[in-house]
Design a protein that fits this description.
With 436 residues, this protein is of the alpha/beta class. The chain is built from 12 helices and 17 strands. Strands 1, 2, 3, 4, 5, 15, 16 and 17 form an 8-stranded mixed β-sheet that branches. Strands 9-10-11-12-13-14 form a 6-stranded parallel β-sheet. Strand 6, helix 1 and strand 7 (83-88) form a beta-alpha-beta unit. The protein starts with a strand and ends in a 17-residue tail after the last strand.
């Protein structure tokens, strides 16, 4: 039996910060005390000790596009960002995770390399419904589908008219269908993107999200199957989502730090800001924050989707779309949340507890019986983002050069320090997670 005490004058327990000692045995929290017991003690002074983050939307891309990002660099970045668990998307790896064999290949690639714990989403593409039961049995956390083109040929989108059938297939497993909700009909009517940001923004109007989300809501209502809206960008969809919440539909919603912190009016005409759906204007951002504060939006995840730098050049009409931010989710969110009057309790809910609940993991709270996943950080320490120092594979992010508040000092996964003073940089203690 391994036993350790982790202490600080500011531990987030029972909804607030107070002096406390977190007692850990064999990877689990077994108690919260006022004084440390006999044995090893990690004393973090007056740094904040809170639950580690859970990121349920990460594109690792290995195998197949490991040159974009791989499990070693992705989980190093996660650990440096206070993240104890990531859940990997079924694309842009090759093969995509739409069969149990593809899942086995991904697990085999990940197993010897991971610093934090890793789970996996399955994918659902046209004709793959028959694979859903076996993928569920193999332990995926749910199934991702696109309603518009995904950007990679090996992961085609399903038709909007196929949504009820897809939900019936996934609903029988009890796992959610997680949906990239943009209507191809609206996108096809929109003007084509040019090299500048304004034209790219016009090419993916809010109406594309609104129409797709309304169709998804209707399909959830008719099937009763759980679903999840990925990376909500368009505030125009909030009213429909609020009605779905009133109707108690099994529908959850996420958004991402870039939609809550970056303003389209400040976008450079290089493709570092390109993502789909796009980053919109300040008024839209304000409305997203209101929806997050009221509970219409459940959680905030990174949608870390990196690529080599040469795919981020050539203008918004040609560059790869994806934001690299796995390591920066906590400081990016904290900087803007505090400015808007939110506190650490809100951060813990949006970045830790709610993502953990979404995928059914016993983490995200400091209490007996939970995994001993902890982030130790200084919410007042400021730093300027230097992309070259980030642990992700490629040194580019739209946050480069921005001053943020909140520096992670240590990260624990199941009671083991995986980042911080004294962490074993050579160790790869992460585990592969299953939903069942």
């Amino acid at each position: 039996m391994s036993r350790r005490a982790i202490t600080s004058s500011r531990v987030f327990v029972d909804g607030g910060l107070r002096p406390a000692v977190v007692i850990v045995e064999d990877g689990l929290i077994v108690g919260v005390a006022e004084r440390p017991p006999a044995g090893p003690v990690d004393d973090h002074g007056d740094l904040v000790v809170m639950p580690a983050l859970v990121d349920t939307h990460v594109h690792v891309n290995e195998p197949g596009r490991t040159e974009w990002e791989g499990f070693a660099t992705a989980t190093d970045a996660a650990a440096a960002g206070g993240v104890a668990v990531i859940v990997d998307m079924p694309l842009n790896s090759i093969p995509p995770t739409v069969t149990p064999d593809a899942l086995d290949q991904k697990r085999a690639a990940a197993a010897p390399q991971i610093r934090v714990d890793v789970g996996f989403w399955g994918g659902l593409i046209p004709g793959s419904e028959a694979q859903v039961p076996a993928l569920a049995e193999a332990g995926v956390f749910g199934f991702k589908a696109f309603l518009s083109p995904s950007g990679v040929d090996e992961f085609p989108n399903i038709g909007i008219d196929q949504l009820p059938r897809a939900l019936e297939a996934t609903g029988r497993t009890g796992l959610p269908l997680i949906v990239h909700a943009e209507s191809p009909t609206v996108l096809n009517r929109a003007p084509e993107a040019g090299p500048d940001y304004a034209s790219y923004l016009a090419s993916r109007p809010p109406a594309a999200e609104v129409e797709a989300i309304e169709v998804l809501i209707a399909a959830v209502a008719s099937t009763g199957s759980p679903a999840h809206v990925l990376h909500l960008s368009a505030a125009a969809a909030i009213d429909s989502l609020a009605r779905a919440r009133v109707d108690a539909l099994p529908l959850t919603v996420e958004t991402c730090p870039h939609y809550l912190t970056l303003d389209a009016g400040e976008a450079p005409d290089d493709a570092s800001w390109k993502c789909a759906p796009p980053i919109r204007d300040r008024a839209n951002q304000d409305a997203l924050w209101s929806a997050l504060g009221s509970g219409i939006i459940d959680l905030v995840v990174s949608d870390h989707s990196p690529c080599p730098g040469d795919l981020k050049v050539g203008g918004f009409d040609r560059a790869w779309g994806g934001i690299a931010s796995l390591e920066l989710r906590l400081p990016a969110m904290w900087t803007e949340a505090r400015r808007r009057g939110h506190d650490i309790a809100d951060i813990v809910e949006w970045l830790c507890a709610a993502p953990a609940r979404f995928v059914g993991l016993r983490t995200g709270r400091i209490e007996p019986g939970m995994r001993a996943d902890l982030a130790v950080w200084d919410p007042d320490q400021r730093f300027t983002v230097d992309a070259a120092t980030l642990r992700q594979r490629h040194p580019h992010t739209p946050y480069h050069g921005r001053e943020l508040s909140g520096v992670v000092h240590s990260t624990y996964v199941r009671g083991t320090m995986v980042y911080g003073p004294g962490a074993d940089e050579a160790a790869r203690p992460g585990r592969l997670l299953r939903s069942r």
